[in-house]
Amino acid sequence: MKKILLPLILLSLFCRVQAQRYLTEVFDQVQMTPDIFYGQALSAEDTIANLAMDIFEPVGDTEELRPLMVLVHGGSFVGGDRRDPLMMAVCETFAKKGYVTVTMTYRLGIDYGNFLNLGDELSRATLRAVQDHNAAMRFFYKSARDEG
User: Considering only CA atoms, which of 34, 33, 36 is closest in space to residue 135?
Assistant: First the structure.
């Protein structure tokens, strides 16, 4: 029984140490790579919108495969910014825990002049945001495939 118990205790301690990586801050510094272009799309005003993101990574991390967190700002599809101080702080906090974090832009805009069809306007705004999020995910899938 003692021979089995010791490896289980060591395994338990190892799992706890490993789990701390994503639960507590284990890195002191974070590198932010700003303005990574991930696409273009037609805006609510029928102009071309450039879509960009900022990527946060822990400095000195030796892990090659890290979990990715994509944070999308609020604003009811008419306001907000990926560089909101709260968004930046959340990205930095999770990067210090070992995650790669991203804050991204998405197309904003609702035609309030079309108030009789405001539900349709909100649906279109939601669809644009989802499309932009999907474009960002394709960017990361392609990056992982090309590097892997």
Answer: 36
What does the mean pLDDT of the chain come to?
86
CA–CA distance, 62 with 112 (Å, rounded to integer): 49
Contact 84, 73 (CB under 8 A): yes
Predicted local distance difference test score (pLDDT) of residue 86: 94
The model's pTM: 0.80
% the chain with pLDDT above 70: 86
The distance from CA 3 to its chain's CA centroid, rounded to whole angstroms, is 45
Judge contact between 86 and 20, C-beta under 8 A: no
